[in-house]
Task: inverse folding
């Protein structure tokens, strides 16, 4: 692994908000390498969004070090921002264009793409996310799932190397969840894009991340490991988190002496059980 | 009047006014303001108002919506006129007609031009910081109107609005407005963050409208 492969590196970060609220993200170092899909997990108020805002260069740390693509994102934001696409918690606050087409075109025009190039890229994103029929719709009138897709298109249209997703599927219906998850899966398989996401739904974590960092309520990054290991080898209740139902089932069955493989893949589990 | 409806009409319209560049429409608006400020007479105000409404009718714009939006400032004007002593019809008429004409011109602009196009055109002549502030304010209005609706519903559900208890109702409304104000400040900060992430640097770029 070369230095270029390290996309994000955070060491003992501390942030104090105006008003004195302090978020201490010290603990295990946070490091994301090229092509990784990383989930940041923790209870409400643990500082997950604060961590993401530091990566995006929106916040400047009070203490500690944040390096994104080899630079301090808060100081050299112009150097790194075109490499990062982000979908924030509330899609409503992210959509700015009068139509879906205009909204997706917002970032490329800001980043200096030509109008022709912008149009081409927007068309590609509309097609990729299967939202071509929304092209001339007003963002206010879209459903929650459609708004997320538009926000995602707007975050990916300029070809970032790193995608940041803050609770990407919160408040999204089942069908849209499946579609967005499948899209992100394919995106990672096709491009190897690095992804960092925060989420509460542990089933989604299995779909959207290979590694995870778990934060305490005060903000300290406590655990890091493969998602499977985190779910099977640690007591997540102390972090106010519950493993997904499949992990809980396997753990309980193993407690009854079934010796099942520690997997989050239903197909693998079905095959093992079928053989028995 | 639903704010989103204005947006909808601006985006979905296909009239000649919709196709006219935002810069041209802003120049016409500036001209209307100049005329109304220079010649403060009834005939000039009436002619300007008539011309604007004829234009709206000719372009097949929704006249009811136009009327509803134009009538808002009249409420404030009425309060002003009530406070004037020895007011005569001759004294009030030019004022009412000028306000109506000016408002009609502004509303025609808003109903036929998307808001990024307006601010993009303004950005060529006004300081970028001012245009950004106006842009944020306008965009935030749409989100805050939702918050106001929520606050009103919450007060309703908890019997916070009652004509029988005007003092308590006013107090509750004040509390709700304070809550929305705090929300507005937080919202503006989050919007600024979101736009920064999307490469916004105080300039507004637009794509030409597709036919």
Result:
């Amino acid at each position: 692994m070369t230095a270029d492969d390290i996309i994000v590196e955070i060491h003992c970060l501390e942030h104090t908000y105006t008003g004195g609220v302090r978020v201490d993200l010290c603990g295990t170092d946070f490091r994301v390498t090229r092509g990784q899909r990383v989930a940041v997990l923790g209870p409400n108020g643990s500082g997950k969004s604060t961590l993401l805002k530091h990566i995006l260069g929106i916040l400047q740390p009070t203490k500690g070090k944040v390096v994104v693509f080899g630079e301090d994102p808060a100081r050299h934001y112009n150097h790194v921002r075109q490499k990062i696409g982000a979908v924030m918690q509330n899609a409503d606050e992210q959509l700015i264009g009068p139509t879906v087409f205009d909204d997706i075109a917002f970032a490329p025009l800001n980043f200096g793409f030509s109008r022709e190039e912008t149009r081409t890229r927007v068309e590609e994103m509309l097609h990729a996310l299967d939202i071509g029929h929304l092209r001339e719709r007003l963002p206010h009138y879209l459903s929650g799932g459609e708004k997320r897709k538009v926000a995602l298109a707007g975050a990916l249209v300029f070809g970032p190397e790193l995608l940041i997703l803050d609770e990407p599927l919160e408040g999204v219906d089942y069908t849209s969840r499946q579609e967005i998850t499948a899209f992100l899966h394919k995106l990672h398989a096709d491009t190897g894009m690095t992804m960092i996401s925060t989420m509460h739904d542990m089933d989604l974590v299995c779909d959207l991340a290979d590694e995870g960092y778990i934060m305490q309520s005060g903000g300290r990054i406590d655990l890091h490991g493969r998602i499977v290991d985190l779910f099977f080898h640690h007591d997540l209740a102390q972090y106010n988190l519950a493993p997904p139902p499949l992990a809980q089932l396997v753990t309980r069955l193993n407690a009854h002496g079934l010796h099942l493989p520690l997997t989050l893949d239903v197909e693998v589990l079905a095959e093992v059980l079928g053989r028995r | 009047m639903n704010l989103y409806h204005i947006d909808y009409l601006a985006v979905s319209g296909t009239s000649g006014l919709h196709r006219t560049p935002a810069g041209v429409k802003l120049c016409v608006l500036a001209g209307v303001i100049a005329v109304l400020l220079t010649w403060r007479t009834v005939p000039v105000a009436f002619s300007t108002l008539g011309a604007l409404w004829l234009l709206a009718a000719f372009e097949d714009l929704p006249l009811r919506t136009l009327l509803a939006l134009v009538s808002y400032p009249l409420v404030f004007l009425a309060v002003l006129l009530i406070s004037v002593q020895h007011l005569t019809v001759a004294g009030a008429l030019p004022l009412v007609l000028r306000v109506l004409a000016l408002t009609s011109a502004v509303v025609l602009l808003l109903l036929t031009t998307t808001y990024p196009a307006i601010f993009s055109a303004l950005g060529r002549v006004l300081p970028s910081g001012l245009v950004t502030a106006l842009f944020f304010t306008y965009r935030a209005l749409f989100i805050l109107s939702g918050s106001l609706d929520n606050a009103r519903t919450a007060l309703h559900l908890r019997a916070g609005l009652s004509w029988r208890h005007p003092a308590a109702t006013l107090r509750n409304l004040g509390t709700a407005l304070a809550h929305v104000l705090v929300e507005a400040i937080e919202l503006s900060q989050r919007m600024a963050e979101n736009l920064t992430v999307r490469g916004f640097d105080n300039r507004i770029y637009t794509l030409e409208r597709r036919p």
In short: Chain B has two domains: 3-113, 127-197. Chain B is about 75% helix and 0% strand. Residues 127-197 of chain B form one domain.
